[in-house]
Structures are given as C-alpha cells and as structure tokens.
Amino acid sequence: MTAAAAEWGADESGLIVGYLFRQDGEPQPIDSGTAASLMQGLRDPQTGPHASASGEFAWLHFNLAHSGALRWLRRWSGASAGFFDAVEGKLRSTRVERDDESLVAVLNDVHFDFSFEPSEISTLWISVDSRLIITARHQPLRSVDQLRTRIRAGESIRSTVELLERLLRAQADVLVEIVRTVSLRVDDVEDDLLAAKAAAKRVRLGAMRRLLVRLQRLLAPEPASLFRLLQHPPAWMAELDAQELRGASEEFSAVLSDMGSLQERIKLLQEEVAAAVNEENSKSLWVLTVVTVMALPINILAGLFGMNVGGVPLAGDPWGFWIIVAVVITFTAVAALLTFKRHDR
Questions:
Q1: 330 lies in a domain?
Q2: Residue-by-residue DSSP string for 199-229
Q3: Pairing of strands 132-137, 57-63
Q4: Residue 238 in domain
Q5: For the segment 103-138, what is each residue's pLDDT rounded down to a tens digit?
C-alpha cells in the first residue's frame, strides 16, 4: 500500500492516516505496514534505530468501524490498558487522564457532515506517550480532519503532546463555530419574536437547546481533568507542552462559558415564546367566551318557546315576535356589558 493511500483512506488494518514526524523535515505519510516496522524503534529508543535525541514520533489515526482496527492496535501499538478500557467502555465524557507514563484522552466532536442535530456527536479516543500518539473513532470528525488538512499543508508539530493540544484547539474551534452559528439562528428567532412570529420557532429553539445541552454535558468534565493532569504530568512531558495544554484548557473553559450563556438566552426566548402562545390562547378563549355568553339568552328563550306545550305566552299576540326579539336583545346587551366589565377589571 502506498503512503498516499494511507493518507486518504483506511487500509486493511483500519488505519486512516499515519504520519512520521522528524525535527529536520516535513511529516512523512506512512501506512500500517511501515508503522508496524517502526513501532519497536518508537517504543524502545535506546536499543532501536530511533534515538530520543532525534525527536522522532508518529501519529496513527484509526477507524474503529473497521473490523481489524482493534486487533491491529492490540498487537502492534503497545497502548496502555486504560486506552482499550476507554474504547470499550460506555463512559463518553471528555477527559484527559494519566495512565502510568502515558496519557489517555476521550474527546467528543461533531461529525464531518454535521447538520446541527444532537445525535451527530461522536467520540475520539486518544493514546499519547513520548513517541507515539494514536487516535481512533467510529465516525468522521471535523477536528481530526482539520488537523490532517493542516499537516498535509506542511504544518510542523514538535511533539505528541503538541499534537494533542492541536486536537484540543481544533475541537474548540469547531465548538466556537457551532456557538456562533447557533447565536445567528437565535438572533433570527428573536427578530421573529419581536415581529410576532414566534409560534413557528418553538421547535427550532428546542432543537438548538438540546444540542447545546448535549455538547456541554459531554465536554464539561474536560477542563477539570486537564487541571488534574497538569498537577502531576509524566516525566517526559516538557514544560512548554504543559503550558500549551493549560492554554487549551482555558480556551475550552471560555467556550463552555459561552455555551452556558447561549443556553440561558435560548431559555429566556422559550419563555417569551411560551408567554406569547399563552396570550394567543387566552385571546381565543376570550372570544369563545364572549360568543357563548352573548348567545346564551337567545338559546334559552328559543328552547323555552320551542316546546310544543300549551300556555306558550304571546302565542296569539300580533306583536309577540317583536316583544321576544326585544327581550333577547336586552338580555344579550346586559350579558355583554357584564362580561366586558369583568374583562376590563
């Protein structure tokens, strides 16, 4: 398999993209066969052909929907047991944790063809040590695709931790884009609300709020887990890498704060929409009540005079019809007057 094929599509092991990074050159695309042959040197820099001073490391990105991906990872990657436990576990909350001398990260990102549906959020699992970073997912994700595009364009990366930090910032950029797009949609709903067109926007507000709630629920633990990691980093993590991770954590906190504020704004708009709908319902109920009250006298008299029994008053009076009409009008006017006075109060 050629390096170009490894860059664009998954091979027989489920590898989507692989790169070998060197300090003295551009990132080199590699396939799963090359990665397997390099693995021993990356894992054992003292005895292997890749010395620590070279600063050489690899990035392998896998498609877990491929049946051979986990099998290849267990055989060749040397990733920690915590990484495989995270992949096979049910906990999807975003976090970055230390597992002995390696890092295990769980990130949540939107699908590549994201259409602002709460179900279009998937998980990215990451294993990081000083020589190798492994990422794995079930669905195509935007943050990974953005990072791959930058690397393909020649962007250099210093270490595995810096690549993890780039993934975190790419994910934060995607979230910022989502927050901005949702803000624009909320602005449109707010304009329609001011123009008395709010009823048709209730479903859109609910969908946007569900999306933000799901994103915030999955992402909220991430800053706290990064903080715990930075208190006790692995020995191989450089101080500069720790500072960059801290900056990524602060950026995430800012994005989560913006998401919380946007949720509160949507909640207030939903309350305004509900109030507008209740007001419309009250007006409709008021009209129905007025019609019912004003029609009550004529219905009562029509029912009484419509009984085919003897003794119906005014039956032989030539002015009987007009007398009954006057009585009905009088009672209807009195009922309407009383109803409108009560409404005014």
A1: yes
A2: GGGHHHHHHHHHHHHHHHHHHTTHHHHHHHH
A3: parallel
A4: no
A5: 999 988 887 777 777 777 889 999 999 889 999 999
